[in-house]
Amino acid sequence: MSEQDVPELLRVRDLSVTFVTPERSVRAVDRISFDVRPGEVVGLVGESGCGKSVTSLSILGLHEQPAARVTGSIRLGERELLGASPAQLREVRGNRVSMIFQDPLSSLNPYLRVEEQLSEVLDLHLHLRGPAARARMLEILAQVGIVGEERLRAYPHQLSGGMRQRISTAMALLCNPELLIADEPTTMLDVTIQAQILELLRSLQRERQMSILFITHDLGVVSEICDRVIVMYAGRIVEQARTAEVLHAPLHPYTEALLRSTPRVDVPGGGSLHPIGGLPPRLSDAKLDACAFAPRCPRVREGCTNGEPALTNAGGERLRRCIAPVAEMESARS
Amino acid sequence: MTEHAPLLEVRDLRVHFASEGNVVRAVDGVDFDLRAGETLALVGESGCGKSSLARALVGLNPITSGAAQLNGRTITGLTRTAARAFRRELQLVFQDPYASLNPRFTIAQTLAEPLLLHRKASRSNVDSKVSELLGQVGLDPELRARYPHEFSGGQRQRISIARALAVEPSLLLCDEVTSALDVSIQAQILELLRSIQRTRGLSYLFITHDLGVVRYIAHRVAVMYVGQIVELRDTESLFESPAHPYTQALLASIPRVSRAAQTRAPLPGEVPSPARPPSGCRFHPRCALAFDRCPKEHPDLYPVPNGSSRCFLNE
């Protein structure tokens, strides 16, 4: 069975998220579609304001209505999540989908010991109490590399950043979710601790055949953990491909520019930096009459301001939103 | 002063804090020189003492012992007037430009204040000086009447840099200046800092946790671990052949675009508290190469090619 035939676990279609304020409307995510298959790690990559976190919050139904208008379809297996009742969403959250965040302190209750945080989840979702719950807690803590009962009695503030992220990961994994949404889970950590957490997520994902939607701005982290990558710019998907393709042969000039503006730890002098001039566009809900990246694009040409380019197939599973993609220009030149 | 004297000399500097009956040895015997026109990066993980050291140099943390000299003048125990003159020589740029810019001041007011205070401009030419500064950091002088909230993060960082440059310092202390910025904007700011250094011959003490940024911007690198420098090298030597096991582990743990998911063993454990540093070599509990001498004796900095390393294996 080829990969295309595997039924997807998460199927997002034409998802748009618009924030409405009395002054103006901002479309933070604009008609995006993607799949996550069972056991797959998909990276959602882009800079501040590109819509990657807004997308992930939509999956769990965490936007405040009616300030956020969410349209389209988000299916988890057979179940449609958009428009599901709060009770249905609660059942999905924790049981089938969980989330870890950049700042583990924000997802841990400062007044509760680790033990109390974990037992609440077990009680609520799995109806586990007493010794059975305790055994499960110790088992899950061992899986995230925390041994012994001492940590169970700690309050979040008594733990280091890396330890807190392990606890919130343990909490997210308690109910064996099919999908883990990880929103910049290592961004606040030191590199040696980041390496520990990435290694942990990788091994847990392999053991459990869990899917991960990994949101990050760090292309190095992407290369460590993701099978496929979706690059977002101004609320749109601009490129989607396997990790190696995106990192080593990007098609969209924005992806290329991101790579070229990142200082390289593995190249003498940090490599030559090519900053992207200008700033990302101010989002509104108006229809674009040009490519969103055109004003900053080093490869901009005449047709780029002639309507917004469509997201088109570039062979295999690759998608790109560009009328003059990088590789084609390179081969035309040689 | 001879021509070859370093711009900044730091000798056996210690910054200790009292906390709940413990002594926190945040900076515990640091020595380094910074030459004119040079960029020295100070790297290390949270709690290694890099920010405590930087804050001590600008007088925001008391120096417990040791000495620091800038341009041959001692930093410690200055009178208020001397301290002001000193601060003109050494300017700071912070991670979050929004927190360090006065929200009620226009950009012109923000830049005019240090110019007038330190007599780098007079009432009659302050406007043209402000425009000149804005031009130097790549901002349109027409924007002078705007307030900080009207600018993006990258533009605000340009404004903080302009403000630091206003008093013509010889040393800029950059504390995680690009950490809050997106990579495309970070690259703009790094390029700007490099070009300013070329034109003004300015020195940078550059504090960052991002080793890619270090390799791009720094001439030399000091790696800190639990309050001490464990390796001090030329940038390329450090990245090509790191001498200290901690530096090796640090470099190995950085995710790289050029390397697919790999099977390296992450460094175990966590950085120990500077209130209770391990005996002997402070890295020995996490070091894969530690041997019987490491927990017993404290290693010195030993010479290695283009620098020094605090490891018995380099003795």
Topology:
The complex is a heterodimer of chains A (334) and B (315).
Chain A: E1 10-20, E2 25-36, E3 41-45, H1 52-59, E4 68-76, E5 79-80, H2 86-95, E6 97-100, H3 104-107, H4 114-126, H5 130-143, H6 161-173, E7 179-183, H7 191-208, E8 211-216, H8 219-225, E9 228-233, E10 236-242, H9 243-248, H10 253-260, E11 312-313, E12 319-320, H11 326-333
Parallel strand pairs in A: 3-8, 3-9, 6-7, 7-8
Antiparallel strand pairs in A: 1-2, 1-4, 4-5, 9-10, 10-12, 11-12
Chain B: E1 8-19, E2 22-34, E3 39-43, H1 50-57, E4 65-70, E5 73-74, H2 80-89, E6 90-93, H3 97-100, H4 107-117, H5 126-136, H6 153-166, E7 171-175, H7 183-200, E8 203-207, H8 211-217, E9 220-225, E10 228-234, H9 235-240, H10 245-252, E11 302-304, E12 307-309
Parallel strand pairs in B: 3-8, 3-9, 6-7, 7-8
Antiparallel strand pairs in B: 1-2, 1-4, 4-5, 9-10, 10-12, 11-12
Helix pairs in contact in B: 4-5, 4-6, 5-6
3D architecture notes:
The complex is a heterodimer of chains A (334) and B (315). Chain A has 334 residues and is an alpha/beta fold. Chain A has eleven helices and twelve strands. Chain A has helices at 52-59, 86-95, 104-107, 114-126, 130-143, 161-173, 191-208, 219-225, 243-248, 253-260, 326-333, and strands spanning 10-20, 25-36, 41-45, 68-76, 79-80, 97-100, 179-183, 211-216, 228-233, 236-242, 312-313, 319-320. Chain A has an eight-stranded mixed β-sheet with strand order 6-7-8-3-9-10-12-11, with helices on both faces. A four-stranded antiparallel β-sheet of chain A has the order 2-1-4-5, covered by helices on one side. In chain A, helix 5 packs across helix 6 (161-173). Chain B has 315 residues and is an alpha/beta fold. Chain B has ten helices and twelve strands. At the A-B interface, helix 6, helix 7, helix 8, helix 9 and helix 10 of A face helix 7, helix 8, helix 9 and helix 10 of B.
